[in-house]
Amino acid sequence: MTKTWQDSLKTALKGNNQNAMRAHADFSPQAGQLFAPVVTSSVNKQINWLDDQDPLLLQFLPHVDELTEAADFHSDPVGDHLSTVVPGLIHKYHGRVLLIASGSCAVNCRYCFRRHFPYGQSYAPRNHWQAAIEYIKQHQEIHEVILSGGDPLTLSDKTLKSLTDQLLTIQQVKTLRIHSRIPTVLPTRIGNSFAIWSESFGLNKVMVLHVNHSNELSNDAIKAIQKLKSLGFTLLNQSVLLKNVNDSAAVLIELSHHLFKHGVLPYYLHLFDKVQNASHFDLPESHAIEIYQQMKKHLPGYLLPRLVREEAGEPSKSLINIK
Ligand SMILES: *Cc1c(COP(=O)(O)O)cnc(C)c1O
Ligand code: SF4
């Protein structure tokens, strides 16, 4: 029997890939209780277990430093609840709405704000999309619907189809954008049924991937990216600047080139949101700016991601000003 992506996801959630993690010197079972360790077998294969500082391992390892509670770090650093217009729908930026289509992910990234709402985060359950659809219908200026989460690709293609069927009834919506880590952490998800779904509607299609380090671009991930490209997706990437993972201009410059080679443009480089229990990923803003200045010197403009910070109540993402 061939394994489906759903099987792989179930295996990940059962935590069958974590034995090697437990052997790591900084592994903390208590940290694992604060936020369950979850990786897929594809991620597992990309980790170099002989390297204590492996950039993938550090993104997923329940680390002893998570037990440190730091001042100025919060469980909801972005404050999105303020802009929630109906359950699961965030209308904060002009012309675009963000639909929290799923509360689940294929992996648990240790630095994510979701660590504080793994189950309880308000999202739009399938049977409650009606309210979101009605809201969009009534707002003529909304031309783009962004599916986010969690990870929207944890939903089945059938569920996605029922959502796009409803979006297609709204004249002014032209673009569907998906923010997902799944093409690179669970590449088998981008299979035939996904292809059939994504070819079934005429909206502009944008996929914003989430890759922090070139080591995440496995051969299977690259195949998934090529498939998305052939299906007509515009491919962008967002990264988070993380201490000990990618806090180096050389690593990020190489990532930009590597993404471009496979048809993906760097879009955002996020300054780390001050998420409680993840302060060991934070680096001083002055250091972040130094890294970015190096990147700016070495990269053509189209391969330089925008350095941004999410700020509660702002009408767009805040670009960090760099000379
Ligand atoms: C990032 C984000 C968007 C999309 O912003 P773009 O500038 O179009 O990338 C929309 N809504 C929310 C709440 C966001 O955080
Ligand atoms: S995939 Fe994205 S939303 Fe999910 S845990 Fe990782 S960073 Fe958070």
From TrEMBL:
Cofactor dependency: [4Fe-4S] cluster; pyridoxal 5'-phosphate
Domain Radical SAM core intervals: 91-314
Binding-site residues for [4Fe-4S] cluster, renumbered to this chain: C105, C109, C112
Positions bearing N6-(pyridoxal phosphate)lysine: K317
MF term (GO), any: 4 iron, 4 sulfur cluster binding
Pfam families recorded: Radical_SAM (PF04055)
Catalytic function, reaction form: L-lysine = D-beta-lysine
Alphabetical UniProt keywords: 4Fe-4S, Iron, Iron-sulfur, Isomerase, Metal-binding, Pyridoxal phosphate, S-adenosyl-L-methionine
Family to which this protein belongs: Belongs to the radical SAM superfamily. KamA family.
Designated name of the protein: L-lysine 2,3-aminomutase
Originating species: Marinicella litoralis
